[in-house]
Each structure stands twice: as structure tokens, then as C-alpha cells.
Amino acid sequence: MTVISAPTNATIARVTDRIRKRSESRRAEYLARMYEAVANGPARAHLACGNQAHAYAAMGAQKPLLAEGRVPNIGIVTAYNDMLSAHQPFETFPARIKAALQGVGATAQVAGGVPAMCDGVTQGQTGMELSLFSRDVIALAAGVALSHNCFDAALYLGVCDKIVPGLVIAAATFGHIPAVFVPAGPMTSGLPNDEKAKVRNQYAAGEIGRDKLMEAEMASYHGPGTCTFYGTANSNQMLMEIMGLHLPGASFINPNTPLRDALTEQAARRAAEITALGNDFRPTGEILDERAFVNGIVGLMATGGSTNLVLHLPAMARAAGIVLDIEDFHDISAVVPLMAKVYPNGLADVNHFHAAGGMQFLIRELLRAGLLNADAKTVAGDGLAAYVTEPKLIDGHLTWVDGPEESLNDKILRPAVTAFQPQGGLRQLSGNLGRGVIKISAVAPEYHVIEAPVRVFADQEEVKEAFKRDEFTSDTVVVVRFQGPQANGMPELHSLTPVLSVLLGRGLKVALVTDGRMSGASGKVPAAIHVSPEAAAGGPIARLRDGDIVRLDAEKGELTCLAPGFAERAPVTADLSKNEHGIGRELFAAFRRNVGAATEGAAVVV
């Protein structure tokens, strides 16, 4: 295995050091708690007999091994349900994991399950207002699962949007034990994503009926596994690999294949190997340091990943005593080239990305360019060298071989020196409207700067109604406010994408400004999102009026209202009572009251 790693890029080194210094006191307190927990060890050897009897009652022949406490016991935290295609394959994983561990003299128990909701189902629906908060619920549920303190390591079974970030928050909180994340893989390719998007736009424009729309959607989302576009779910999988929480090459192997099964079994065995009972102890708290989080941001920029991770990464980091700021994303984006073109940033899906060289080629190239912290600790070993290898089944045995040194399709994946763009796809925005971010990796250059009158809306349905009435006839900045975490849980506004795309297709310059989120699949429409402070907190976005001129400049990082006297205006308020009830919203009132700002991860529990 030949890995050429250049000296660390000056900006990557500077940002890593800045994060380290910014986090110094918080990180020190975190590590002190972790090492104290390590010293105490799992409690099962110290449990009273009655406690142990409850813990092992259903474990049959493995009861003596558990009672003695001399072999690793691995806790499984699973997001299995069969409504989410990405999580349905997890149904069979616990049995496979237990069998693999039995073969090496270890044990496993399903510690608990966590909820897993699908943004694809709730998109544009009331349930989307619970979506972001589900991340914190997942962290809490995983915390309950591990609170029995009977485990030497944990295996986390989860894939999609809020599930992985919630599980990482839990893994960091229980950072005194190792954690290995176990993916299920993407579904096989169906109807190409660009064709699906074309049909959606045709439906939005009234050119086709619902029957044709349904036909296209079902042909796209057609089987078990993660959706194949490069949204938040697949950005999560990239992130877990480049941050060293997956086995090398595990992210994008399809479900229900021999290689996927072999990787799941090896993840279980590796979890047992890295417990405190062995000679290669790798507690998660040590892996999730500033180097790992910088590497995650680098991967996000190099692949044009989901803007949702700009919310999730700071929350994940806080759980490990690390403090991230959106300036870190901005500065890293300025030096990391966009090396991948995966839908919505291109025509390919993640299966095509994987076939073109995938994570192995990407990581190798980033190491060659000095754009990663090459010495970061991982579940596979010290440093990222193992992550340029790819898993193969050779004569029935799982083996890692050298990954590709050249892209197998330069329309999808390119070397750093000949990348699609010299910079990543994310920019920080700031000005008298507050702070936000914009993803421009799929936005045409002629839309990087938009200066136009605003139309102000209180929700996305109002925008759709105005579109149906043909009210958008000139360049417009569409403002959708009171969509932040305090207002209604910060739902994604992805259902606006077809509408705004149609307006772009009519030759109008259109942009979106919102204190809400866009989907991880957002693409061609320039969108200033996560604007903070949010309108419900009296942020400047609440001062905007119809007709104000707003300038969104992604090149200079500006988000400014040009109206005279703007700063002296009183912010408007809104009646948010309709957000308080229905489809479970009443259960989340405490979350809305206590949630943090979007710039800090919009979190409740960290």
C-alpha cells in the first residue's frame, strides 16, 4: 500500500489549530470526564446479582460469559424500521453481528432502538417540523440504551439525515468506549435523478398529471438502501468514513450483498478488538477530536455535500468538547477543490461515484494535496492510510487491497489538481441580515450575485400559492421567515425547489433567503439558508418588507438589505400558535423554547 501524503495545507493546519485553541477548556473538561469513566470501566462486573440477572436473563448459553465480564460485550444501537428504505436492511444485522462475535468469543446485545424518520416522506408536510429535533431525540434514546453501562463498545446502525448526527452525539457522550458505525449502503440505481427532477418541474408547471409524477418517483425510490442522490444521508456516510468511524470502504456497498454482509461481520469483530480488554483500545472520545472534524468538513467541501451538515457538525462536535464555527467551513471551502459531481451537483448517483473510485480515490487525492489531517486516529488504526484501500471478497475472505490511484470516470470524480472547481461549494454569508450559508457547487455562476426586490412570506405554502397565481414576473428575492428552530423546528423547504427552478427556467433571477433549511438535495437555486438570528428571536430578517432591495453576493459572502433606515426598524412578530399542535408538535414545545442558534448547531441537548 503506497500512500503519498503532502505536508498539511497551511489553511487546514491553521483552522485545525484555531479550533483546538477555541475548544481548549471545553475539550479538557470533556476528556477528563471520559478518562474517569474509562478508569471505572463498564459496571456489569460490579452489578449486584439481581441487576445482572435482569441484564442477562434472555442471553441463554452466553450468560456465564457475561457474568464473568472477561470477554467484550458489544451494545448494538439500531435505527431499524421498515418504512425507511435505508434502514430496512438493518433488520438482519443484530443476528449477523452476534454470530460473528460468538466466533471470536465475544457477546453482543441489542441495547436499544432509536427513532428514524424520513424527510422524503415528511417533506412539505407538518411532520417535517419535528425532523431536526429528532436528531436530539435520537441522541437521548441512544443515551438511554447505553445507560445500563454493561458494554465495552457500541455498534451504531444508522444511515440517514438526523440519525447519524444523533448517534454521533451519543457516541461522543459515551466516548469512554469505542464506537463503530455500521452502514447499510445505497439502493441500486433506478430512474436517473435528473430525469426525476425534470418530471417534478413539469408537474410544478402543470404540464403533466400526478400519475406521471408518481410513476417517476416510484422508479427512482425503488428498493432497500439509501436514496442514491448525494443528499444528507449519503453525505453522512462519506463523513463517517473520512472521520474514521466506518471501516475503510464501507460506505457505499449495496445492501444484501455478500460484501456488505462481510463488512458488517468485520465491524463487529473490530469493535471487540478495540475495547479496553484488548491491546488496541480506541475510545471514541479520542477519535472525535479537532482533526477528525476538520477532515469531515474537508470531505464535505470536496464532494459538494449537504448543507444540513453545517448544522449537524457543530452539534456533533460540541458533544465531544469541540467548538466549530461557520467561519471554519468557509475557510476550509476556500482551499478545498470540488472533486466530485454527484446529483444534484451533477448527473451521477452515489453508485456511479463509488464505481469511479469513490472514497478511496477521494481520500488518496486529498492526502496527496495535504488537505487532510493525515495523522487522525480512526477505528482502523492511527492515520488515514487504511482508508485508501478498498474491501474485496477474495476466495470468500474479506481483504483490503489498494484502491484506485486514478479516477475511472473524470466526469464524476477528478484529482485535486484538475478538480471541477478550485474551491468547495459552501460560503459563509454575513451582513445586516445576520449570518447564514449558501451552497453554490451546483449554482450557475450568473446566479452567484442576486440583487432584487424581496417578496416576504411566512411559510412555503404561501410561495407556492403566489406561483400558481403567476405573481413572479420579475427578478425576486423570495424571503421565507419564521422557519427557524425556535419558530417551528426549522423544517426543510425542499418543496420550493421545483417552483424556484421553474422561475429560473423562465429567465428570471431568483434567490431564496430563509432562517429555515433547504434539503441536502438542494442545488441550482441560490439559497441563503440558516440565517441567524432567526425571525422568531427578533433577528434582522424580521425587519424585511416587500419591495426592499436585498443583495446576496456569494462571491464576497454578503447578505445585505439596502433599504434606507433598515437597522432602525422594529422587527415584526408572527402568530406561531399554529405550530404548537398536531402531528406531535405539542410534545416538542420544550425543544422550541430551549433550542440553540443555527450557527451553533440548532441543538437542545448539547
How does this structure look, described?
This protein has 606 residues and is of the alpha/beta class. The chain has 2 domains: 11-40 and 71-188 and 223-402; 426-600, 3-Layer(bba) Sandwich (Glucose Oxidase, domain 1), CATH 3.50.30. Helix content is 36%, strand content 13%. The protein has helices at 10-22, 24-40, 49-56, 63-68, 93-102, 119-122, 131-146, 163-173, 193-204, 210-220, 232-242, 258-273, 284-287, 290-303, 308-319, 326-333, 350-355, 358-368, 460-468, 485-488, 497-505, 589-594, and strands spanning 73-78, 107-113, 153-157, 179-182, 389-394, 397-402, 426-431, 434-439, 449-457, 476-480, 510-514, 527-532, 549-553, 558-561. Strand 13 and strand 14 form a beta hairpin. It is globular. The mean pLDDT is 93. It is an enzyme of class 4 (lyase). Keywords: 4Fe-4S, Carbohydrate metabolism, Gluconate utilization, Iron, Iron-sulfur, Lyase, Metal-binding. InterPro entries: 6-phosphgluc_deHydtase, Dihydro-acid_dehy_C, DiOHA_6PGluconate_deHydtase_CS, ILV_EDD_C, ILV_EDD_N, IlvD/EDD_N.
Strand content: 5-15%
Structural class: alpha/beta
What does the overall shape look like? globular
Q: Give a short account of the largest sheet.
A: 8 strands, mixed
Low confidence ranges: none
Number of helices: 22
The spatial strand order of the largest sheet comes to 7-8-12-11-10-9-13-14
How far the N terminus sits from the C terminus, by CA atoms, comes to 40 Å
Strand segment tally: 14
Query: What average pLDDT do the residues reach?
Result: 93
Q: Rg to the nearest angstrom?
A: 24 Å
Instruction: Determine the fraction of residues in helical runs and give it as a percent range.
Output: 25-40%
> Total domains, how many?
2
